[in-house]
TrEMBL record:
This is 2'-phosphotransferase. Pfam families: Lipase_3 (PF01764), PTS_2-RNA (PF01885). It comes from Macrostomum lignano. One of its GO terms (molecular function) is tRNA 2'-phosphotransferase activity. InterPro entries: AB_hydrolase_fold, Fungal_lipase-type, Leu-rich_rpt_Cys-con_subtyp, LRR_dom_sf, Ptrans_KptA/Tpt1, RNA_2'-PTrans_N. It catalyses: 2'-phospho-[ligated tRNA] + NAD(+) = mature tRNA + ADP-alpha-D-ribose 1'',2''-cyclic phosphate + nicotinamide.
Length: 605
């Protein structure tokens, strides 16, 4: 007991805690009596009180949860917070295969589904699966037969059918005859997981298998250590549609064969060679440049920018996720991802019988617990009454509103925005001289403690709520802003894409002071529209605020206008595309002779 309370410096204790947490959050949460929420999240407070963690200091447990990383440098646990009540939830970042309770709550009565699967597994030879096309249930049967030590070539031949598209054989003992059964029985396979079958997978066995799987799109060969460059040639020639390939732990492929495969594989979009040791840095540089030019995501420990690789990594390493998301396609219900509008999504059910989730950030419909869903549970829409109709209106530039935005942006530089705006004649002429209900925010936004500021207020004469951000002040802030724009990597933003680090840091520091006051004014004045504006640095932060309000808070395009002045380049192409979709009534007024704009608008940044 003593070493459990000792502190955070003992690596043995931290490793022990990490293993317990991995077990709970990957497999055994329900078994240990923890409630599992959507997305496999578990209440953090309940987790800390779990009997398996009894005696460990809570600060130590929280430290392991927030700081523990995998051998790839990826955080092993993910924490999210409910925006409404501040409640915190945690889940494992990857490898989640949480066991469902086989019994009804507070009883030892088995669920009907469990009874049916057990009965089928025990009498597998009495059933005809030739026309059965539910990938998910077939996967469940395979794993159940494996756990009961009943999976052999006869049972495998019995349950596989020509209609299957996804097959996960990880953990199953296979023979060359097993591969022949898969080849002949499942010619339409799109996704195949052969992870940790190095004892079986040779160049000849793999080629023989792939010759019967011409539609294959995703193949996981992790730890198939006997494969060589000849297998890559077989994959390229036999599987022309292959998009995702995992070669982690496959060391015998030569550098030359790998480069040739990168150059010639027609459909390849993702390749995992994370642990590969190239003979020289020249091979790695050539592979990286080839992948970049062809638009292939190359996952290697020495290739940077892991954020852009996270999504295809999940797709390649978790075929069970793909099983779940596609099960409805072949069953009685349509897949959630097939729905393209909010109302249809919110009234539909997944193959599990739970409601589909509409995400207003990526404007897509997702299965419950989907790892490619960019929305948190508080952002998801499951009530069709909360769906906002898409705004397809055409917006015209409003010169008068632009003049008012210029006056408001100027007032953001003043210690008191209201009197400044009242004493500015152009503002009065534009109908915006009287500013009330003002809330101002100030925060340090860089290492020199330069300040970023802004305010939110209301122009009752125009029925307009204004949210304005101040621009750069002082040479030191300008210098730090420019250096960070040139030297610091961009940071991911929730709507998609990446934004300049200085703008992101300043927005994160300042937005908590202005976010809730802005929403409060909008709720109190439903007949008011919202103008978001700013000059220079303020224009960049205003863009982040407008995008956040539209994507996360659900402010509709018809109520939101964005006018910036001298706004520098905020983010990359993907951010810009998402912003234009979320905030269609957006206008950027610039002067062509501003030198800073010429620098920050450079496409190479």
């Amino acid at each position: 007991m003593k070493d459990k309370l000792r502190g955070q410096l003992d690596p043995i204790v931290r490793k022990r805690i990490g293993k317990i947490l991995a077990y709970l959050l990957r497999y055994g949460a329900a078994k240990e009596g923890l409630a599992v929420n959507d997305g496999d999240f578990v209440d953090l407070d309940e987790l800390l009180e779990c009997s398996l963690l009894k005696g460990y200091a809570q600060e130590l447990l929280k430290s392991v949860i927030t700081e523990d990383v995998s051998f790839r440098g990826v955080k092993r646990f993910e924490i999210k917070q409910d925006a409404l009540n501040g409640q915190q939830f945690v889940r494992a970042t990857f490898g989640r295969r949480l066991e469902e309770k086989p019994f009804h709550d507070n009883s030892r009565v088995k669920k009907l589904g469990e009874i049916c699967l057990d009965a089928i597994a025990m009498n597998i030879k009495q059933y005809d699966f030739s026309d059965f096309n539910d990938d998910y249930l077939i996967s469940q049967l395979i794993q159940r037969l494996r756990s009961k030590k009943m999976l052999n070539n006869q049972t495998l031949d019995c349950i596989l059918s020509s209609s299957l598209e996804i097959l996960d054989l990880e953990g199953c003992y296979l023979t060359p005859k097993s591969l022949a059964i898969v080849r002949t029985r499942c010619p339409g396979l799109r996704i195949l997981n052969l992870r940790r079958h190095g004892y079986l997978m040779t160049d000849s066995n793999l080629r023989s298998l792939l010759q019967g799987l011409p539609q294959l799109e995703t193949l996981n060969l992790t730890c198939c250590h006997n494969l060589t460059g000849r297998s890559l040639e077989s994959i390229r020639t036999v599987c022309p549609h292959l998009r995702h390939l995992n070669l982690f732990g496959v060391p015998r492929i030569s550098d030359e064969a790998l480069l040739q495969f990168l150059c010639l594989a027609e459909s390849l979009s993702y390749l995992d060679i994370f642990d590969r040791k190239f003979e020289s840095s020249l091979y790695l540089e050539t592979a990286t440049e080839t992948a970049r030019q062809r638009g292939i995501v190359l996952l290697h420990r020495d290739v940077k920018d892991p954020e852009e690789m996270l999504r295809p990594l999940i797709l390649a390493l978790l075929p069970a996720l793909l099983l779940a998301s596609s099960a409805g396609r072949a069953g009685r219900r349509e897949s959630c991802s097939s729905h393209t509008d909010c109302a249809k999504c919110a009234t539909s059910q997944s193959w599990l019988g739970t409601s589909c989730r509409w995400c207003p950030i990526d404007l897509a419909c997702h299965e419950p617990g989907s790892l490619v869903n960019k929305c948190s549970s508080s952002q998801e829409v499951v009530d069709p009454g909360k769906c906002h109709e898409p705004d397809n209106g055409h917006y015209e530039f409003d010169a008068r509103l632009s003049e008012l935005a210029a006056a408001i942006s100027g007032a953001a530089y003043a210690p008191e925005p209201a009197p400044c705006l009242a004493n500015f004649p152009p503002a009065a002429q534009a109908g915006g001289g009287r500013l009330v209900d003002v809330v101002k925010g100030v925060a340090a936004c860089d290492m020199l403690h330069d300040e970023c500021s802004g305010f939110v207020g209301r122009l009752p004469d125009r029925k307009l709520i204004v949210l304005a951000f101040r621009g750069t002040t002082g040479s030191s802030q300008l210098l730090v802003e420019g250096l960070m724009g040139l030297a610091m990597p961009k940071e991911a933003f929730p709507i998609g894409g990446k934004v300049q680090a200085y703008f992101s840091n300043g927005f994160k520091a300042l937005w908590p002071q202005l976010h809730e006051p802005t929403l409060a004014l909008m709720r109190a004045n439903p007949d008011h529209s919202l103008l978001v504006t700013g000059h220079s640095l303020g224009g960049a932060m205003a863009a982040l605020a407008a995008a956040s309000l539209a994507a996360i808070d659900g402010v509709t395009p018809g109520r939101l206008a964005f006018y910036s002045l001298g706004e520098p380049r905020v983010g990359d192409y993907f951010f810009a595309r998402a912003f234009d979709r979320l905030v269609p009534n957006s206008w950027r007024v610039v002067h062509g002779n501003v030198r800073l704009l010429q620098i920050l608008l450079n496409e190479e940044l």
